[in-house]
Amino acid sequence: MAALGARGPRILIPLLRARALHTSPGNPAARVAVVLSGCGVYDGTEIHEASAILVHLSRAGAKVQIFAPDVPQMHVINHSKGEAAQESSAVACRNVLVESARIARGDVTALSQLDAQDHDAVIFPGGFGAAKNLSSFAVDGESCNVHDDVQRVIQDFNTAKKPIGLCCIAPVLAAMVIPGVEVTVGQEEEQGGKWPYAGTAKAIKALGGKHCAKEVHEVHVDRSRRVVSTPAFMGHGAPLHTVFDGIGSMVSAVIKLTGK
């Protein structure tokens, strides 16, 4: 050190500052729970939406844990025909957790184990599973029930003021559980078939929520309730990259609300 002479302090101080910047801890990664409802748009989770959510969370450096309810799914749809599948009784009684494991690559936990204290945010992809397996909305409409654990999770995150992300038809879950919540499922008129599920917006209002019309690439952020939603495949014929971008905006808004 003596060899540095009088120039020593002037050289060491910048080096020490640089080392401190290099080794100082950054913000911890956001811990995000993702709740699936099976595998396949017509009877479970919309696979493109789930994949987009996971890609955007990975890009954001989030720590992700995937959950699904350990219950029988409502029914099985033959996705090539769009009608109920004729399967043997052993196969027909499929399990939502087991089917969700197809998307989670086996790494999925029962929804009953999801504790809001262990996570900074929760995200629900869409797909008819949200309306068939996470709730009875597909059958009962405005008089529907929500799966007990789904209701508990949404209530717990909302009470803890932790962000909730939803896409496609999943915002109806928030409308059922959080009074006055603001969400979007796209537009409120069919517009010549462009928005075939536009009636869902009316159901959200009937459930006590507020609907905010948005395009596929847009999101709505209910800042007071910390709920973020995007239409995704509620819009018919939208380019896949547009759905992907809208979901990316939803994920980014959720991460931002976590403060991480």
Explain this structure.
With 260 residues, the protein is of the alpha/beta class. About 4% of the residues have low confidence. Strands 5-2-1-6-7-11-10 form a 7-stranded mixed sheet. The longest helix has 19 residues. The radius of gyration is 22 Å and the shape is globular. Strand 10 and strand 11 form a beta hairpin. The protein contains 10 helices and 11 strands. Helix content is 37%, strand content 14%. Helix 2 packs across helix 10, helix 7 packs across helix 8 and helix 8 packs parallel to helix 9.
How many strands, what sense, and barrel or not for the largest sheet?
7 strands, mixed
Mean pLDDT across residues: 90
Question: Rounded to an integer, what's the Rg over CA atoms?
Answer: 22 Å
SSE order in H/E notation? Answer: HEHEEEHHEEHHHEHEHEEEH
Structural class: alpha/beta
How much β-strand is present in the residues?
5-15%
Poorly predicted tracts of residues:
15-24
Helix content: 25-40%
Q: Please tally the helical runs, counting DSSP H or I stretches of 4 or more residues.
A: 10
Strand order of the largest sheet: 5-2-1-6-7-11-10
Distance between the termini: 41 Å
Number of strands: 11
